[in-house]
Amino acid sequence: MSCCEGFEKIDNLLENRWFRYLSLLALALVLLLPGTSTLPLMDRDEPRFAQATQEMMDTEQWIVPYFNGDYRFDKPPLTYWWMRVHYWVFGKTELGARLHSVFAAALAAMVICRLGTFFFSTRAGWLSGVGFLTCLQVVIHGRICVADMPMILAVIATMDASCRLLLPRDGVSSPKRFGPLFWYLTSALAVGFLAKGPIAWAVPILAWALFRWPIGKRPLPWRNLQLVSAFGIALLVVAAWGIPALISTKGEFWSVGIGEHVVDRGLKPLNSRPVIPGVYYLGTVLLSLLPWTAFTFAPVFGGESPRTDPKRAILLAWYIAPFLIFSFYATQLPHYILPGFAGLFLLLFRSGGLPSMDTPGQKRWFWGVTGFFGVVFGIALIGLLVMRSRIPAPLDNMIPVFGFALGVITLFSVLMPLAIYLRKGWMALPVLAIGVLICGVGLARSIRERSMVVDMKEAISEAGAMEGASYMSYRFGEPSQIFYLDSEEKWKFAADIPPVKRWMANHEENGIAVFRTKVWRMDGLLTGESKAEYDDTAKVKRIVDPAKYETRTIQGFNAARTTWEEVIVAIPKKG
């Protein structure tokens, strides 16, 4: 059966630009919205972005972000500006905090579709956008509250503009100086830097360099890009924000934002883990590209030589550029190479149909990858079912979470590749959408039901103590508590009991103290260990006067540390 069969029926629809773009928007909403408003803010970056946006709104600040009353220099302001729009509509909610990523992913797919249509065909462009939206790492990062997806959108737009300028359809035409494509390129460069800083420029610059040599090895009409003017104007736009930010922070936005959050992270490995250039991303990309991992043999290793096919050369250069940049960057995270994925999907769907599996090498790659994931996650699912009765309390509370998570990853790694391989192209997308809907909503709800910070908020609300409260936290310093538990004062944190005791004496009417008393690590799921790492319960109870405070003991999941924990919340008694 032809790999293009089934798509001819919608060719007439795909000729309509509005159909292409609106269908990609609809797909993005179906894949990315389910569970987005239910899932509590995860890790440490999400609540920092979400709370910093609220604090900028509270202080009517547009230049410098704040978190818990202090400067937050991690990222430029574009993401906070975008989030403010959704906060005005939806309020300070998980949905309001995350919608910018949803729309940025949808817009990125539309730009990919636009470039694919320019390079190959309308069907190739549309399928490339579909492939991008349905890949696991995009499904994850297209629904979380961070700055990555706006930056990725800007990188894709930069590459779209530069591909049109460097490789015009007739191969010889020179674009008008300071024409629409120049301003498109310049705007994308400015937006990218305002979204996440220098990386938005590093990826396209390296891609252009690789296209020139060694991948493409061909002279290029660099004058078409007008790079000096484009970067100069983009710098002026960035300076309109950056100079006031540097002045108001006395230069700290540069020394901390670039010095610590860019340079130091490039030199200091995350969690002191060893850095082996290239190895980390060769492994994580296999997961990130699901369900398309098993089909990537042909676009990466097959096809015409890049030296004779300039389109293949520039798309390969685009895909490889983030690998080269971040392989030598000490802090390594799976999503760092996402800015290059669009190049791969344009190569994957350049024929205008589902990936073909015609050669022995392609078939061996497909069955090897799919079989590997099937064995690994099949064993994990069976192990969870067999061992669930032996998992000690309280870690047994996490069984539904891991069950839904394994369901999602099995769907992406085994079921979807098989459906695509069997040429059920029209069945693949509905199956994926339904599976993501069920597993995504189930996973989000199961995490929320076990979220310790959400339970803390509910307990304090039930006690009628939220309004006008101030907070002190002992051994519990997660950014999520600052987002969920509003305070009129800065949150205070302490690693010892005496400072907490003194603070409580000065805040007897409105001071709520949060004490982390027990922590269980998730490796107890495998070892059967049920003992907490430490137990500070007796120490805490000695300083909390039952005549003045009511206490709530709460156990739950701490997503930032991937641990199960217990806290005691001391709430002043009224009257």
How many domains, as an integer?
3
- Radius of gyration from the CA trace? 26 Å
Note the gap between the termini: 78 Å
* Amount of helix: 55-70%
The overall pLDDT, averaged over residues, is 89
Low-confidence segments, ≥5 residues, pLDDT <50? none
Which sequence of strands runs across the widest sheet?
A: 4-3-5-7-6
Main beta sheet: 5 strands, mixed
Classify the beta-strand content into a percent band: 5-15%
Number of helices: 25
Q: What gross morphology would you assign? A: globular
Structural class by helix and strand composition? alpha/beta
- How many distinct beta strands? 7
**What is the multimeric organization of the chains shown?**
single chain
Q: Can you walk through the features of this model?
A:
- It is a single chain.
- The chain has 575 residues and is of the alpha/beta class.
- The chain has three domains: 15-348, no CATH class; 360-450, no CATH class; 452-572, D-Maltodextrin-Binding Protein, domain 2 (3-Layer(aba) Sandwich).
- The protein is 58% helix and 7% strand.
- It has 25 helices and seven strands.
- The protein has a five-stranded mixed beta sheet, sandwiched between helices. A two-stranded antiparallel ribbon has the order 1-2.
- Strand 1 and strand 2 (70-71) form a beta hairpin.
- The longest helix is centred in the middle third of the chain and has 28 residues, at 360-387.
- It is globular, with a radius of gyration of 26 Å.
- It starts with 10 loop residues before the first helix and ends with a strand.
- The mean pLDDT is 89.
